[in-house]
Design a protein that fits this description.
The chain is of the alpha/beta class. Helices cover 37% and strands 16% of the residues. Strand 1, helix 1 and strand 2 form a beta-alpha-beta unit. The chain is globular and about 55 Å long.
């Protein structure tokens, strides 16, 4: 088997590359290193072919799909605030990039494409756990562009019979999660704060709950999807439970300080994973306690990550409140 992973130097992508190599696959990685890190693949010692490429622009990288069996499309720009400030960059990366991958897959006759979508497409849902049939309500450009990419994938499956499907991820965490200068996911923020012996910045009162899904479980879902015969289907990928932010603080261990609750964020994320269990035979295996323990064993990965404070977070999220506030 020959597999290609876009965004393979990133958080989830690099773990997927590890799993594919362990299964005997030859692997090609396409990455522009805007958020991915070469260090995430350095332990492989040249066992994977890495091609630096910008998927938003058609080019020579498309030749890499020749004789590829499985394509996993993980390359994307993430995070809320930068998407509000630079929606054009997000559209190019997440929509144009997906269009170009689809065209390349169609031309190459690949056997399977798995697209990584986001649970942010649901916005603030009416139903918990949230099924795949819930109304789509993206609240900010990142969520919208990931949803538009998914629409493209579903349309290519419908019209061109491309053997493609989509997985909607919920709150993925684990080792190698991003350490960039952008204010983002709670785990990366908290781990850098713990290393710096600073208080954890808890949004609101911390009773909000999240469907924290360990990266190794997510990789299992990606591989299960690639090995299935489903075409044009979307599946939630979650942990099967929810955990409060306050509970996460307890597991990480440390003091906390509360910062203002933000508009456009749900009080709960909770995936209904009945469909993926039934159709693909996948289910999560790693508890939040096990996952946090594994992350803490590798906490030095976040040694050089930015340490966020209430003041710096307020400055970084000013546009969040400006554009997503209820008074707009």
């Amino acid at each position: 088997m020959r597999s290609l992973v876009t965004g393979g130097a990133g958080f989830i992508g690099s773990h997927l590359v590890d799993a594919l190599l362990a299964s005997g696959h030859e692997v090609v990685v396409l990455d522009n290193f805007s958020t991915g890190r070469p260090e995430n693949l350095s332990h492989l010692g040249g066992k994977v072919e890495v091609v630096e490429s910008d998927l938003a622009v058609p080019g020579d990288w498309m030749r890499q799909l020749k004789n590829i069996d499985w394509v996993f499309h993980l390359a994307a720009l993430a995070d809320i605030v930068p998407s509000i400030q630079n929606p054009d960059a997000y559209f190019r990366a997440n929509v144009d990039g997906t269009f170009n991958i689809l065209q390349a897959c169609k031309a190459a006759g690949i056997r399977r494409l798995v697209y990584t979508a986001s649970s942010s497409c649901y916005g603030i849902p009416d139903q918990y756990p949230t099924p795949e049939t819930a109304e789509i309500r993206p609240q900010y450009p990142y969520a919208l562009t990931k949803r538009l990419g998914e629409e493209l994938v579903m349309h290519w499956a419908q019209v061109y019979k491309l053997p493609a499907m989509s997985l909607r991820f919920f709150n993925v965490y684990g080792t190698r999660s991003r350490t960039s200068g952008t204010y983002g996911a709670v785990f990366g923020v908290f781990l850098a704060q713990k290393l710096a012996r600073q208080a954890f910045t808890v949004v609101g009162d911390g009773t909000q709950t999240r469907d924290f899904t360990y990266v190794r479980d997510v990789v299992g879902a990606l591989i299960a999807a690639a090995g299935s015969d489903r075409i044009g289907d979307c599946y939630n990928v979650g942990s099967g439970t929810t955990v409060s932010v306050n509970r996460l603080v307890e597991l990480l261990g440390g003091e906390k300080v509360n910062i203002p609750k933000r508009p456009g964020e749900p009080d709960c994320t909770f995936a209904d994973i009945g469909r993926i269990k039934r159709d693909l035979g996948w289910s999560p295996k790693i508890t939040i306690e096990e996952g946090v323990a594994e992350v803490l064993k590798n906490i030095d990965y976040w040694r050089n990550a930015p340490v966020w404070t209430p003041t710096s977070i307020a400055a970084a999220t000013r546009d969040w409140f400006k554009y997503l506030g209820a008074d707009v």
